[in-house]
Amino acid sequence: MVKMTGKLSLRIFLAGVAVCYLLIVLVSCTRKVVQPAPADRNMSFLYNPSSSPLHPEFTVYHEGRDYSRLYLKVYPSELLFNQANKEGTFQSRLQVRFEIREIIEGRESEMITDSSTIIYTLKMDEIKNAFIASIKVKSEMGRKYMLQVFTDDLLRNKGTANYIPLDRSSMSTAQNFKVLSATTGSPVFNKVFHS
Fold this sequence. Notes:
The chain is mainly beta. The protein contains one helix and seven strands; from the N terminus they run αβββββββ. Strands 4-3-6-7 form a four-stranded antiparallel sheet, with no helix packed on it. The N and C termini lie far apart (103 Å).
């Protein structure tokens, strides 16, 4: 009787191991839904803009058949400047990273059409009211895109993200018309103009 119980418990144990192995194989063979990695950025600024130290401004103009130009404006008062550099002058480091995805049937594609990371070293004595830069991004006529821009103050280790729609669906969209300041010659970031 004791031998029978030993054999029975061994069989139950082996059957349990086999079932566990089978379950592991089945689970590993099923299609896994990959969840996006959690964002390592604080996105609360979308609901409370005052929570972010940076408030860059953006505007986009379609300047060629296969590209657009993203203009950005950053205020030096929002950046951290220090003298920890070779020159010993007050400098800041600004990183701008963008990703552009096509909008297909009203949804943002998972495929990145274009991306880049640019780091600017800004010298306090060379910047007056604002730092303005431009970045060339790929875009094709007849399409719509979503441009995601991450702007980071590398010295403060804080930043923000912005989402900018690019509309190349026709030649009459606002982004086809470039408005320049009469005094500085730089692009105008306002959407409203006074007479």
